[in-house]
Amino acid sequence: MKTDLSILFKKPGKSRQVMLTIEPLAPLSIVSTLPGSYYKSLDKPTNANLCGMFENVMGWHIGMKDRRAILKKMKQVYKKEFKIADFEVETSAVGYTSLLGHLFKVELPIIPVIVARYDDYWTQQLKHDDSRHLKGTANLSYQLIKKKRNLPTDDKGKISDKTYSTFLKENNSNFPMYYTSPTPREFIVLEGNYQIKLSMNAYLLEGLKKSLQENNLAYLGTNEGWVNLSIEEI
């Protein structure tokens, strides 16, 4: 299926007033930063959360390299066709860069009642280029098992982090790209729906309406935070 990005190259602006309704279908954990060993949830979605949710609904799953190329092309088109020298690019604290953050603005959020907060473990995917990656993953190519067992040890029978790191760098392609780590994370249980008044670009609005006719499910915060979406012009 071909991804349609045509709305990104049409005239920007936020001429439509809409009400976005987000109905939580599961407990949510909305985190905007990388806080370390504990992920505390926000009470409401950030602009970056909304950007990611909109892109998810429209089926945009685009890597960072392609995002940079698309944003570069957008700036060229905006400057040539619409005489717009630059526009604000929405980037979250965790490095997510949106393609459409400049096409809407939150005017008024109404937050539902939070009836419960609880902690659970969240499976975090991590990637490092040192011994943490080798120690974190339980999987590696069978060709390396014997080599790993024969790594030199110190007087106490331990393998140094430097030895692990060197082994990983020399055999990087034979390890998984990511390893998983259970991380404590806060979840919130909501009674009611988020109601968010937005100023929105007309082309983005039509793109979301069309996508929601086929799929009104998305996720917010984590890929387990399923939400039902509806959007209405006011």
Task: Write a structural description.
With 234 residues, the chain is of the alpha+beta class. The chain is built from six helices and seven strands; from the N terminus they run βααββαααββαββ. The chain has helices spanning 47-57, 64-82, 131-136, 142-149, 161-170, 202-214; strands spanning 16-24, 104-110, 113-126, 179-191, 194-200, 217-219, 226-233. It has a five-stranded antiparallel β-sheet with strand order 2-5-1-7-6. The protein has a two-stranded antiparallel ribbon with strand order 3-4. The radius of gyration is 22 Å and the shape is globular. The two termini are 32 Å apart. The mean pLDDT is 88.
Report the principal-axis shape: globular
- Specify the helix fraction band: 25-40%
Q: What number is the mean pLDDT?
A: 88
User: What is the ordering of alpha helices and beta strands?
Assistant: EHHEEHHHEEHEE
Oligomer: single chain
Parts with pLDDT < 50 across at least 5 consecutive residues: none
**So how many helices?**
6
Secondary-structure-derived class:
alpha+beta
Rg, alpha carbons: 22 Å
Number of strands: 7
Q: Roughly what fraction of the amino acids lie in strands?
A: 25-35%
**C-alpha termini separation:** 32 Å
Q: Write out the strand line-up for the largest beta sheet, numbering strands in chain order.
A: 2-5-1-7-6
Q: Sheet bearing the most strands, described?
A: 5 strands, antiparallel
